[in-house]
Amino acid sequence: MRGLLQLFAAYGGFLAFFLLEATSLVLIVQYNHRQKDIFNNSWGLLTAAAEKQVDNITEYWGLKARVLDLQARNIKLMEERDNARYSTAVYRDSLQADSTAPMFTFIAANVVSNSIISANNSLRLDRGAADGVKPHMGVISSDEGLVGIVRETAEHYCRVMSLLHSQSRIKASIRRNGYFGTLAWNGGDPMRMQLEAIPKHAEVAVGDTIQTSGYSQIFPKGILIGKVESAKLGPGENFYTITVKLFNDLSKVQYVYIVDNLMRDEHEELDRAEDE
Questions:
Q1: How crowded is the C-beta side of 199, counted as CA atoms within 13 Å?
Q2: How far apart are the first and last CA of the chain?
Q3: What residue ranges of the chain have pLDDT lower than 70?
Q4: Distance of alpha carbon 74 from the chain centroid
Q5: pTM of the predicted model as reported, rounded to 2 decimal places
Q6: I want to staple 148 with a disulfide (CB 3.0 to 4.6 A). Which of 3, 56, 72, 160 is the partner?
Q7: Which residues of 94-124 are buried (b: 16+ CB within 10 A; e: fewer)?
Q8: Which of 171, 253, 238 is nearest to 210 (CA)?
Q9: In this structure, is the dihedral angle defined by the CA atoms of residues 262, 268, 269 and 271, taken in order, positive or negative?
């Protein structure tokens, strides 16, 4: 009781003022039609704004749930494709049917930062070491275009070297005939890259589809990259100068999948043995 009296003594003046102001406002609104209309209109606007905000929050969480569900479905479909599986069937006495094992799996992630205007662009994703992400894992977009390669990981985030990076080198091939080379970015247009080391005896045509070759252990074979926009062979040159227009617009990528090669340790073990 004493505490209540002390509180009233300290803030009684303010409480009395607030009470009188509220009473005055009620009387003004109650007995003046114009003020009553203004109050009702303002209250309606305030209520509508609050309801809209609640609807936006509800829609956001509903959309987020749908995105997560779609990502899970996409992962399941990608993991069932032939280029994400390893064939265990061998020719001995007979060929075993349906003998495959998982080789690639995928981790869904969201892009939290991105750059495309420097010579060495990168992205940051909201998945890290705690989610099983490791350096040298590939990253593809939600429509299965190439994005880049993981360079560094923190517990909950990772940094990705974008395709649009001066050090980016991706093994790629011409889908029609299998000739392969290295895809690089020489700066400038973020929608165009260069396919290097395609020999002059290869048949290259404008419009040819470029895909991942499968010769690295980072990306599955057959992921679409772009189309040949121009292919030039200068006098005395042994390799084409090829410009590839990308299918994937890296300036608007939001949802991605980190590619995990389940047989990566075996390949690294062989690489170490070769270097000895």
A1: 5
A2: 85
A3: 1-18, 20-22, 24-64, 88-98, 276
A4: 13
A5: 0.72
A6: 160
A7: eeeeeeeeebbbbbbbebeebbbeeeebbbb
A8: 171
A9: positive
